[in-house]
């Protein structure tokens, strides 16, 4: 390796771990200190902006320790700044020893905070998914899910965590959240009941099933003896998601299970 590349590598190792790796010989300390501060402060600032809740939870020393461990222990898979958040989430998942004892919710909270940026940058296009759809009845027709609507489940109520609410144990029931990007390109969040989360997941998994068929599938999964009792609650949910751009629209269920209301012949 050329001398210049050796010097670059040695300096990079020092900047990542100043306490454990000495600076290359012959460099002016004042200049090396400038680089140490620039590199650390830039990454720390980017992480703080990506994870504002976590930053508020941690005091100065605890935050600095976590960022420094990220520097020293984590080998990032990307050089892109906007993907730094996903690398930090991965680091927390691989090194629970730094947070699990005091804040067992930390990894899930980091994922929840990262999702907003991830969805903002996701390539899915609701307008493309809406092509060929219309605002029909999502029960008798096929509801078409937006590609930028994600159903996420967490053990902890991550959307409620703040400095004065930091649970030590996960509640009995998981937290289900809907995170979606609407046609105005705004990322929105909605808390979901477990059945609502499962219904939306079924919409996303199915390609050509009517809402009525999806309700029957849901009823079979939960052992509900009267699927028809779920039709109107499901219709209300699906219509609400259509208004919020979670469902891009509906299309006719050609050749499938379409419910036709009875008609009365004139006398």
Order of helices and strands: HHHHHHHEEEEHHHE
Mean pLDDT: 91
Query: Helical percent range?
Result: 40-55%
Give the CATH level 1 class of the largest domain: Alpha Beta
Please give the CATH architecture of the largest domain: Alpha-Beta Complex
Main-sheet strand order equals 2-3-4
* CA radius of gyration: 25 Å
Helical stretch count?
10
What is the end-to-end distance? Answer: 96 Å
Total separate domains: 2
Explained architecture:
It is a single chain. The chain has 267 residues and is mainly alpha-helical. It folds into two domains: 3-119, no CATH class; 130-251, Alpha-Beta Complex (Outer Surface Protein A, domain 3). The chain has ten helices and five strands, in the order αααααααββββαααβ. The protein has helices spanning 3-16, 29-50, 52-57, 60-73, 84-94, 106-121, 126-130, 194-205, 211-222, 231-243; strands at residues 142-145, 149-154, 175-181, 187-192, 247-251. Strands 2-3-4 form a three-stranded antiparallel β-sheet. The chain has a two-stranded antiparallel ribbon with strand order 1-5. α2 (29-50) crosses α4 (60-73) and α5 runs antiparallel to α6. The termini are far apart. Mean pLDDT is 91; it is low at 256-267.
Record keyword descriptors for this entry.
267 residues, mainly alpha, Outer Surface Protein A, domain 3, 2 domains, three-stranded antiparallel sheet, two-stranded antiparallel sheet, 10 helices, 5 strands, elongated, disordered C terminus
């Amino acid at each position: 390796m050329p001398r210049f590349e050796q010097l670059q590598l040695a300096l990079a190792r020092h900047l990542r771990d100043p306490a454990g790796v000495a600076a290359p010989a012959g460099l002016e300390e004042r200049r090396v200190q400038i680089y140490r501060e620039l590199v650390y402060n830039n990454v720390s600032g980017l992480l703080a902006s990506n994870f504002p809740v976590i930053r508020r939870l941690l005091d100065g020393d605890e935050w600095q320790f976590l960022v420094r461990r990220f520097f020293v222990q984590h080998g990032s898979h990307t050089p892109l700044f906007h993907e730094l958040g996903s690398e930090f989430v991965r680091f927390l998942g691989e090194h629970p020893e730094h947070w699990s004892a005091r804040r067992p919710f930390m990894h899930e909270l980091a994922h929840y905070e990262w999702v907003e940026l991830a969805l903002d940058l996701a390539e899915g296009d609701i307008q493309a998914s809406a092509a060929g759809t219309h605002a029909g009845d999502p029960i008798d027709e096929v509801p078409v899910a937006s590609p930028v609507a994600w159903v996420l489940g967490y053990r902890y109520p991550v959307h409620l965590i703040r400095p004065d609410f930091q649970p030590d144990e996960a509640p009995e029931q998981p937290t289900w959240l809907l995170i979606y990007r609407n046609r105005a390109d705004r990322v929105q969040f909605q808390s979901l009941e477990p059945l609502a989360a499962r219904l939306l997941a079924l919409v996303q998994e199915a390609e050509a099933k009517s809402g009525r068929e999806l309700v029957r599938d849901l009823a079979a999964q939960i052992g509900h003896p009267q699927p028809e009792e779920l039709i109107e609650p499901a219709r209300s949910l699906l219509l609400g998601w259509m208004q919020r751009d979670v469902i891009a629209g509906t299309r006719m269920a050609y050749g499938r299970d379409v419910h036709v209301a009875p008609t009365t012949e004139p006398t």
